[in-house]
Design a protein that fits this description.
138 residues, mainly beta, 4-stranded antiparallel β-sheet, 1 helix, 8 strands, globular
Length: 138
Amino acid sequence: MDYPIKVFSEVRDGNDSRLTLRVTPTPSPTDLLREIYARSAPQAQGYNFHSLVWDVRVGNSWERKALISMSDFAGEGVERFVNQLHSLNASSSTAVVSLAETDGWKVNYSWVEICLMMPGRWQMLRRCQQPFERCDEV
């Protein structure tokens, strides 16, 4: 079953450059569980990281400059995913994002600066104590 890709959040650098965090809904194991879950918590929905998309405005339309998928963050024995967006710097092709790393047991969160044109490269700015800790001044 294919799940729709949704824009979860967006940051802009001026009016001509935007970075979107895209996700897919987390599937329930069975239709029965999905129905029970929907009745008990209809507003609750989990999501899986899908991609980061950097678009630039050309005339009246948006053109894709870069797409960074989950596999671009892959590591040996570690799963990584983008948790939050903070900022986009189009002139340097960088963005500050919250990156989560898990070995299957524990999840560690950090604010990192990523190079949008070379997604395997990022610089650690600060480790977080909580999943949705604000970036503030990094």
